[in-house]
């Protein structure tokens, strides 16, 4: 069982900082998660490089 990796993003709608959790067993992933503040859909793209470092990008769903 893998432990979820914490990450910080900023909502592209209301600009609030948000904390998310990413599954490290999936090297590259893209999914939609609603903002915890304004409820708008955020497209999250997360990937782990060869050394296991996490990179996360968040964008508005309609971009």
TrEMBL record:
InterPro entries in alphabetical order: UCP037225 (IPR017143), zinc_ribbon_bacterial (IPR025990)
Database matches in Pfam families: Zn_ribbon_21
The organism's place on the tree of life at top rank: Bacteria
Protein name: Cysteine-rich CPXCG
Protein source organism: Marinobacter daqiaonensis
């Amino acid at each position: 069982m893998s432990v979820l990796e914490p990450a910080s993003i900023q909502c592209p709608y209301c600009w609030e900082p948000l904390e998310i959790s990413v599954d490290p067993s999936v090297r590259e992933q893209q999914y939609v998660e609603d903002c915890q503040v304004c409820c708008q859909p955020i497209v999250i793209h997360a990937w782990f490089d060869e050394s296991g470092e996490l990179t996360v990008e968040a964008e508005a769903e309609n971009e």
